[in-house]
Amino acid sequence: MWHAQDGMGWWMVLMGVFWLLFMASVIYLFLSALTRGHAHDDGDALEIAKRRLARGEITTDQFQEIRRHVEGVVRVEPSSMKP
Question: Which CA distances in Å does 13 have to 2, 16, 20, 21, 42?
Answer without folding.
Answer: 22, 5, 11, 12, 42
